[in-house]
Amino acid sequence: DIQMTQSPSAMSASVGDRVTITCRASQGISNYLAWFQQKPGKVPKRLIYAASSLQSGVPSRFSGSGSGTEFTLTISSLQPEDFATYYCLQHKSYPWTFGQGTKVEIK
Amino acid sequence: EVQLVESGGGLVQPGGSLRLSCAASGFTFSSFDMHWVRQATGKGLEWVSGIDTAGDTYYPGSVKGRFTISRENAKKSLYLQMNSLRVGDTAVYYCARAYGDVWGEGTTVTVAS
Prior knowledge:
The structure holds two protein chains of two kinds. By secondary structure, chain A is mainly β. Chain A is built from no helices and eleven strands.
């Protein structure tokens, strides 16, 4: 199985900060990676697909990059509504696996 | 409007069975792979099963042999038959389309005596 190691597991940041979250795959997954945002009590929402493609309707301050084994999700200027937990998902091969999540909290 | 609506959750004793359903609307259901993802309270997301358009099925080791995913394209419905349930299967179960672009609101499964 492909393991997805996400870091950090939690972080504190201020409005306006640039935030970077990393996911590392235990083996190459090309660009078969998506990023999700989940707010408390809400359904996960896809932000990025194919590692770097922005989901329709998602603000352009979100971006994704990477290929192979290392991937990043960047929020260029953190907004109040961005405080949430973020997950990566590899869908290169079954079983699909999520990263353990990164909780972004208000500093 | 593209929508997924899960049902069938509830309280079941360890060792028991439950069948979840997911009703799709607003898109050509038969053209998409479909998945179940679960989340225990306070925990992360866990992919539980997937079925492609040809009807081939996929599972992680944690549920293989106990859970069965199926689909009925004529009814635009996805199912998850869960047998030999364990306390650790307690979670909110979501159905999701393809690579997670559409999710349902989830249905809660509680396994307890």
